Amino acid sequence: METTVAQISRYLDRSGALPFSRKIDGLLMFAFRRALHRRAAQLRRLKTFGTPEELSNWAVDRTWTRQIHAQLELEQFVRLLSERSRTILALRHAGYTWKEAAQLLSASVPALRSAFWRDVARVKSELKNLRSGGAEHQAQQEIAPTDNPQ
């Protein structure tokens, strides 16, 4: 309410109104109503999360764990590639172009690329089957009865 009175006071000063020359009740009520509506809209937009102690739990940086998991998955993926594909990957990672890698490995660029990407697709398929098959195998073990009668 105080900020609304200050707003109306500044408005009347800017417009050059003489003190007590107008009935400002309506103007004050209108400005206060608008301020209330703005504040209500602002509160609907804001969502509080709790106390500072609770917020500190939310601020934990978990990006390093994601990076470690990504690195481990990449290493597993590379181990499943063929020796030739690992060599191609190492050359490409070192900055060699496909053309330079093909010359070093005595192959044509299209043959080298297609063999590499075919091997990558094979490994992706193996990992996908391993992940889905592993979950099915674990579910079957949980359901299957034991052979040891008690």
Description:
The protein is an all-alpha fold and 150 residues long. It folds into two domains: 2-49; 65-143, Orthogonal Bundle (Arc Repressor Mutant, subunit A). It contains seven helices and no strands. Helix 1 crosses helix 2 (25-45). The longest helix has 35 residues, at 109-143. The protein is elongated, with a radius of gyration of 35 Å. Mean pLDDT is 79; it is low at 144-150.
Structural class: mainly alpha
- Can you tell me the CATH topology of the largest domain? Arc Repressor Mutant, subunit A
Described by its quaternary structure, the protein is single chain
Count of helical stretches: 7
Number of strands: 0
Portion in beta strands: under 5%
Number of domains: 2
Beginning-to-end CA distance, first to last residue:
78 Å
Query: What is the class of the largest domain in the CATH system?
Result: Mainly Alpha
Structural topology:
Layout: H1 2-15, H2 25-45, H3 52-58, H4 63-80, H5 83-93, H6 98-104, H7 109-143
Give me a quick take on this structure.
By secondary structure, this protein is an all-alpha fold. Helix content is 75%, strand content 0%. The protein has 7 helices and no strands.
List its traits.
mainly alpha; 2 domains; elongated
